[in-house]
Amino acid sequence: MSVEPQKLGGPEAEQLREQLQKGDPSGLHAFVARTRAERDWQDRLFMLGLLMPELQPAILDFACEVEPEAANLLLLCCVHDCELGMKMRGTGTCDGVGEGGFRDAAQCIKAALEVLNQTLDLDPDDPTAHA
User: Fold this and answer.
1) Helical H runs in the chain?
2) Between the CA of residue 13 and those of 25, 38, 70, 117, what are the distances in Å?
3) Cβ contact 116:78 at 8 Å
4) For residues 89 and 87, what is the distance between their CA atoms, to the nearest angstrom?
5) What is the rounded CA–CA span in Å between residue 105 and residue 88?
């Protein structure tokens, strides 16, 4: 009898990942709100790093249109833009990354910084956006 290894982030991450793959961000939104209330910054950062690749940009955009003043959603936008910037930059060395990759990554980081400022205005006590 073999035991299936536990996936990174445990059952909660797996459940949130499945919801996000189905286009449902409500679980992630609730997780971010809960960890904010509990001030559990490390778990919040860890899980956001794991789950952001699963979050569909159109779903996030729609959620932000519905709740434009939700600091938690703006935080997700900030994290998403940072993740996208890293992908657009690529994995090469400075010599191996083209000007286009740097330009695209810079646009994503610029967007992340704009959202970061909005997030900080709405919730200045949350250190997650800085991280």
Assistant:
1) 10-21, 26-38, 41-51, 57-66, 71-89, 99-122
2) 13, 18, 22, 28
3) yes
4) 5
5) 5
DSSP state of 22: T
Res 6: pLDDT: 60
pLDDT digits (tens, 9 = 90+) for 71-104: 888 888 888 888 888 777 766 555 556 666 778 8
So what's the pLDDT on residue 47?
92
1, two tokens: 């009898």
With beta carbons less than 8 A apart as the criterion, state whether 61 and 102 touch.
no
List the domain boundaries for the chain.
10-122
Q: pLDDT-derived band of residue 38, with 50, 70 and 90 as boundaries?
A: very high
Is 80:72 a contact under the CB 8 Å cutoff? no
At 100, list the tokens: 């286009």
Q: What is the pTM of this model?
A: 0.76
